[in-house]
Write a structure and sequence with these properties.
Distance between the termini: 52 Å
Shape: globular
Structural class: alpha/beta
Largest sheet: 8 strands, mixed
CATH superfamily of one domain: Vaccinia Virus protein VP39
Number of strands: 8
Mean pLDDT: 95
CATH class of one domain: Alpha Beta
Length: 257
């Protein structure tokens, strides 16, 4: 058991050495954030926004630029919040953007107080149905929820792809099944679109490759670290070969007014 725990701790250490360095912790872009935000077409002038699982906050900062909202950015990993805090201070956004270390399952928001909940690549940590159910009471009538979710784009995934996702996210499903979950949770479908290939590469996999290469040199004599880096690089290679089989869908929902 101690060996397993040590191995898990080592994986987490190297994983975060990669992910904390990245401009985004998952696929996305300012353009896609803006496209999804445009579907939230009846927001108040200064909306109350919660960014759930914000990571280092690339999309948080985009939302701050694209709206006049008051944004609470929530993530459980303190170093990522510290990174966002530094950027918020550098941009003079302290009055409008509040980075917080916290649990997406227990966000510090009163029922019916939020105009827009945002979550890029993080809702799956709770499970989509659980996340949508937990967050709905926080939204005012007519409020919006926008999130990205890994989905199957084809129903015949190659064995290597299927094995990876069954290990990483066994409940992953397709777009229509996610929309059905949203309706069951009491939302209206405002719109949805698949993230373009550039959202996977420009600020996510391309910088990840660069970071992995640097860490391979740093940990050249560390077999455990190299094994973690190999696993992360394997994910990149799988997407390079089979990026047409799965993707990320941006889904925008609304609570009935």
């Amino acid at each position: 058991m101690s060996e397993q725990r040590e191995s898990s701790e080592r994986f987490d250490e190297i994983f975060f050495e990669v992910y904390e360095w990245l401009p985004r912790q998952g696929p996305g872009s300012r353009d896609s954030t803006a496209q999804a935000l445009a579907l939230c077409d009846e927001l108040p002038r200064e909306p109350v926004i919660f960014d759930m699982g914000c990571g280092s906050g690339a999309q948080t900062l985009d939302l701050a630029a694209l709206t006049d909202g008051m944004i609470t950015a929530l993530d459980s990993h303190a170093p990522l919040i510290s990174k966002l805090e530094q950027e918020v201070n550098a941009r003079g956004l302290q009055e409008r953007v509040r980075p917080r270390v916290g649990d997406m399952a227990e966000p510090p928001a009163a029922p019916g107080s939020v105009d827009l909940i945002w979550s890029e690549g993080a809702a799956y940590f709770l499970g989509i149905e659980e996340a949508l159910g937990l967050w709905r009471p926080l939204l005012r009538p007519g409020g919006y929820l926008a999130f990205t979710e890994a989905v199957w784009l084809r129903d015949d995934p190659p064995k290597a792809v299927l094995e990876m996702w069954q290990k990483e996210y066994p409940s992953m499903t397709d777009v229509q099944s996610n929309l059905a979950i949203a309706r069951r949770c009491g939302y209206e479908i405002q719109g949805h679109f698949t993230l373009p290939k550039s959202d996977w590469w420009d600020q996510f996999y391309a910088p990840m490759e660069e970071r992995i290469a640097a860490l391979r040199h740093e940990y050249a004599a560390d077999d455990q670290a190299l094994a973690v880096l190999d696993a992360l690089y394997g994910e990149i290679e799988l997407h390079r070969q089979f990026g047409d089989v799965y993707g990320y869908e941006f889904i925008v929902l609304r609570v009935p007014a």
